[in-house]
Structures are given as C-alpha cells and as structure tokens.
Write a structure and sequence with these properties.
Jelly Rolls, alpha+beta, 11 helices, 8-stranded parallel barrel, TIM Barrel, about 20% helix, 9-stranded antiparallel beta sheet
Length: about 600
C-alpha cells in the first residue's frame, strides 16, 4: 500500500514530518551518496564485500522506495519520482510485470505506460539509482504474481520450478526483457545498480535447482551488477543462492532478523528490501494501515543500525483493469482495485477535482452485448478460462466468462467446488442466485420446455502468493451437477472486456434506461469537463458491483461491500469537453455517478 495511505490527516502529516526528519538526517550524514547525474567515469559498480555497500570505492547506503510503472500513468512518473527525491531517497525499486509485457505467448508490449526502459532512464535523469526486480515472479498483490495466465494452458505446469514448460517460457521472455535492461546497467552508463533474483522464493521453495537457474539466466544474458535476493524471515535460509546477497522483508525489526542475516552472511551489508509501509486490502474487509509514529521509529532504528532500506511501497498506485491479485489460506480473498491512493502534502501537488454529477442515460443488456464478443465456443464439457480457444489460442486471461447450456427441468444444482471465483446464475434472463468457492448447492426452479441455464463467472483475481499458484485456473474448472448428472453441451462466451470490445460496444443500439432495467447490463453516460482536466475519484454510490470504463480505460472493479468506495481517475485519461463513461453493472444501479476530490478507501483498522 502507499506509504501515505493513513487513517486521517493528522497521521498523514505526522509521517510526512518523520520523512522530513529523515531527509535532514540523510543530508547531515551525507547518506544520499553519489547520484547518477554526477557520474562521468565508472570503474566499479555497487559492491557488497564489506559491512557497508561500496560504490566507486565510497561508502554507500541504499535509501529506496518502491513504485511500479504499471500502477502509475506515465504522465505522472516524473512527478512521483520527484516526490521520492524530496523525501530524501536515492534509489527507486521496481518490479517488472511479465503478464503485461507478454499478454500472448510471443507477443510483446513495451509501449506507452509499459515502457519500462523509459521509466528507468527517467529515474536516472532525475538523480535516482534503480534496483530492478525482474521476476519472473513478483508477487506484489498482482494477478498470479505477474506470471502470464497462458502458462496454465499446460495441464502439467509447475510454476516457479525448473519444469521445462516453465523455463522455456522464462528463457524466451528474458531474452527479450533483459536485452532492454542490460544497456541500462551502472557499468554501461545507466542507473541500475542491482538486480533481484526472483522474489521471496524461500516462502515457496518448491525446487532446489530453481534459484541457481534464475541466477544463471540473468548472468548469461549480460546482467553484471550486484545480485540480491529478497525474503521474509521464514524464507531467508531457503531463498538465497550462492554468490548472491540476501536481503530481508519486514515491518518491525527484531533481534532474529539481525542475527539471521549475520549468521547467513557475516560481514556483509544488511538491507531491508521491503520495509512494509502499509498493507493490502481484500473486498469485504476493512482498510488496513500501519501506525505512522511507529513506522517512523522503525525507519530510524533501521538507519541507526547502519542498514539500507527500501520503503514498500513509497507510492502504491492502482491495480487498473483486472490486475489485482488474491490470497488463499483458509479461504479465498480477492484484493481491491487500489494499491494505495493519495500523496503527501508536499509542494507541486496536482489539484484533485470535483466534477459535476454524470447522468447515466442509456443502456443495453448483457444478452444484447454478446453479439459484440468473439464467436462463442461450443464444448461438450465446461472448459476453464485459460484453455478456451480465444486470443489467438492463448485463452482468456481476465474478466468474465459466460457458460450457457440447455436444461429441461429444475432441481438441485451442485457446483462441486468448480466455480472460480464467483458466478451469477440465470434461467434464460432470470437471475436465480450466486455461486462461489464455498457454495454447496442451489435450487433451479421448475419450468416448461427447454430453457437456458447460464453461469456468468468472474475471475476475481488469481492468487499471487503461497503454495496455490498452480491451482489458479478460472471459470468453470470441472463438472457441475444438476440432480446428480453433469451438465453438458455448453456455449461459452468470452467477456474479457478488452478495449476493442468496449470500442465495438459504443456502436451498439443503446436505448433509454427503463424504470426496471434488466441486469447485468452496460450503462452509458458522459462526463463533461469545462477546462483543463485534473485527477478525480469516482464514487459509485447506489451501484452494487461491476467495472468502470472512462474513454476506454478500465479503471478497475468497484463493489459496494468495500472497503474501497472510490476509484482513482487520472487527469491524463480525461479530455476537455465530453468524456465517455461506460459501466458494467451486475445487479443494481443508480442513474448518476459522482466525481469527488478525495479518495475513500473505507473504514481503517491498524495492522497488528
């Protein structure tokens, strides 16, 4: 979560003051160190041969902050980096999201908001060093930890192991990614001073040969800067690899943390790679925050011990679209759209805007919108989302999938724990209930003749952490029983809601909203802006659950159960005059949408 997502203004200011104090201390003891813009001659990169990091033979302390280019609109990269520098930090750390860069096998995207090369160069130009965390797995409360869903088309897939189906895909991806990263390394004149080997593998530890493989994959493709691993205390011993500096992830410093680092690698620099400045939230839960005063004290303690630090997160940003991850321990819990919104009270803030209420005036039903999807796939048995023959044979990655079959009777429906993750169930166009992970059965009402039994299944986000990564296939993943007999002969529609679909949808025969519209449906309105557009927050009060699109941009999911009550709408995605608003709503709507000047992340609770 964003470091400044605190309970109230009082705590926000307190932690801002703590950061100011930190900046003064950094200046006083010259902890900022050498800056990229000052370096003309480079002989030796970052070294970890003594108890302190050394850069060009000088003592160097990493004062880092995490910010992910894929969670921040490109137009705001510079603004966020300057705020990072203003807080006294000298290093930017970023993950690289494989699933965004290779959405289909062999098809790559490094343009616009995904231009990670431009992001790293900009950091260097602004005087920040960079620690690159290229994965392939990144966790980060991101769908499947950043791994592309098409990997799961292989029924034998073993993610994060040396299973050949996985390593072949990683090798091909690294060939492309690292060719772009190598020229940005310190010794080649760029700002990258260190590269992380995978991410928190000690908590997974499924294959003892995997981390050496990833290390060699980096080295063989030209990565020559200092290599790091990153683990929490439970995985510290299992996640390291020979010749790589281990770093630790934590929220409070305990003797066991220091002792473990000392015993594992004596006389080496100590670094907290992730000092957790906030926590993630799940739908239906509360908004989690850390106490600002306690965080400031821990930061000071880390610095007084001579350790380097990276704030995770400095700026969280947003899980735009369907990119949020999920957790699964005792039960499945999907993460919210926000990964932290808002910024500290500092100079140069962009103003947040209140806009006039947008009136929603037209709609079409989901059933009418099906003609704008790809041709449905016919299958005797239900097929999971990833193995559907859509997207040039790469399957469906995100969004909703509609499974439709014909029944001639009612009775008892047993989902058999095969719904992933949440299904609205219909007889023809009549809504009859919701099935989820833990649903046991549902009554299908009796009726005459042939009727369509429909399951609108939402992928609410794949688990991003833990031992369940290989079990993240979505949609309907096996037989569903009606009166003890498996349902057969499905017509399957993909509702991934990509930008091309939303564009086609704009050409539909929209109609005036009746007093009682049929749900689910797509609802259309406009936001008119008279003047230069600024950031705003969309409050979907009176709506129940769905997805919001502004000018074709998927802002993400909203859900009345909270905790999050607003969606962040970046000013650069708006235009002067008319802005197009499309809402996909599952069950209930209000004929207006509010645009407010402050975020509402819900009722907050301190994290213990």
């Amino acid at each position: 979560m964003l470091i400044f997502s605190l309970k109230n203004v009082h705590k926000k200011r307190l932690f801002g003051i703590a950061l100011l104090i930190l900046g003064i201390i950094i200046y006083r003891f010259n902890w900022r160190g050498i800056q990229p813009t000052k370096m003309k001659f480079r002989k030796t990169g970052l070294k970890a041969n003594t108890e302190d990091f050394q850069l060009e033979g000088h003592k160097f302390r990493i004062l880092g902050g995490s910010m992910h280019y894929f969670r921040v609109p490109r137009a705001y990269w510079k603004d966020r980096m300057l705020k990072m520098k203003a807080c006294g930090l000298n290093t930017l750390t970023t993950y690289v999201a494989w699933n965004l860069h290779e959405p289909q096998r062999g098809v790559y995207n490094f343009k616009d908001d995904l231009d990670v090369e431009a992001y790293i160069r900009l950091a260097g130009e602004l005087g920040l060093w960079v620690i690159l965390r290229p994965g392939p797995y990144i966790c980060s409360e991101w769908d499947l930890g950043g791994l592309p869903s098409w990997l799961l088309r292989d029924p034998k897939m073993e993610l994060r192991t040396t299973y050949k189906g996985f390593t072949d895909a990683v090798d091909t991806y690294f060939d492309v990614l690292l060719a772009k990263m190598v020229p940005l390394q310190y010794m080649k004149g760029g700002p990258i001073i260190a590269v992380q080997v995978e991410n928190e593998y000690g908590s997974y530890a499924a294959d003892s040969t995997y981390m050496p493989y990833i290390k060699q994959a980096l080295l063989s493709r030209g990565i020559g800067e200092l290599l790091l691993t990153s683990d929490n205390i439970d995985g510290l011993m299992k996640g390291n690899v020979d010749g790589v500096l281990a770093t630790i992830n934590l929220q409070k410093v305990k003797p066991i943390h220091i002792n473990s680092l000392d015993s594992q690698q004596p006389h080496k620099p100590k670094m907290v790679m992730e000092f957790w400045t906030g926590w993630f939230d799940a739908w239906g839960d509360l908004h989690h925050v850390f106490n600002a005063e306690e965080m400031a004290n821990v930061v000071m303690e880390i610095l007084k011990k001579g350790m380097s630090i990276n704030l995770y997160m400095f700026h969280g940003g947003t899980n735009f679209g369907f990119m949020n991850g999920a957790l699964q321990s005792n039960m499945y819990m999907a993460d919210i759209t926000s990964y932290g919104e808002g910024l500290p009270d500092m100079p140069g803030l962009y103003p947040k805007m209140n806009y006039d209420i947008s009136t929603v005036y037209q709609y079409i039903t989901l059933w009418e919108a099906l003609k704008f999807t790809e041709e449905p796939f016919l299958s005797e048995d239900p097929i999971n989302m990833e193995n559907l023959p859509f997207n040039n044979g790469n399957g469906q990655s995100y969004g909703y999938t509609l499974y439709e079959t014909v029944v001639t009777s009612g009775g008892t429906l047993h989902p058999n724990d095969k719904i992933r993750d949440r299904a609205l169930v219909f007889i023809d166009e009549q809504f009859i209930g919701i099935l989820k992970h833990n649903s046991i059965e549902m009554v299908v009402p009796d009726g005459k003749g042939k009727r369509k039994l429909r399951f609108l299944v939402e992928n609410c986000g794949r688990v991003n952490y833990g031992k369940e990564l290989n079990n993240q296939r979505k949609g309907i993943i096996g037989d569903i029983l009606l009166n003890g007999t498996p349902l057969k002969d499905f017509k399957i529609y993909s509702l991934e809601m990509q930008s091309t679909f939303i564009e086609r949808l704009r050409g539909a025969q929209w109609k005036q909203i009746p007093e009682k519209p049929i749900f689910p449906g797509f609802f259309r309105g406009i936001l008119y802006i008279d003047g230069y557009p600024g950031d705003t927050y969309v409050k979907m009060q009176g709506w129940t659950k769905g997805v919001l699109f502004i000018n074709g941009h998927n802002l993400g999911r909203y859900w009345s159960i909270g905790p999050q009550q607003t969606l962040y709408l970046p000013g650069p995605w708006l235009q002067r005059g008319i802005n197009n608003v499309i809402v996909f709503e599952e069950q209930e709507m209000e004929k207006k949408i509010n645009f407010v000047d402050s975020p509402d992340l819900g009722m907050a609770i301190d994290v213990d």
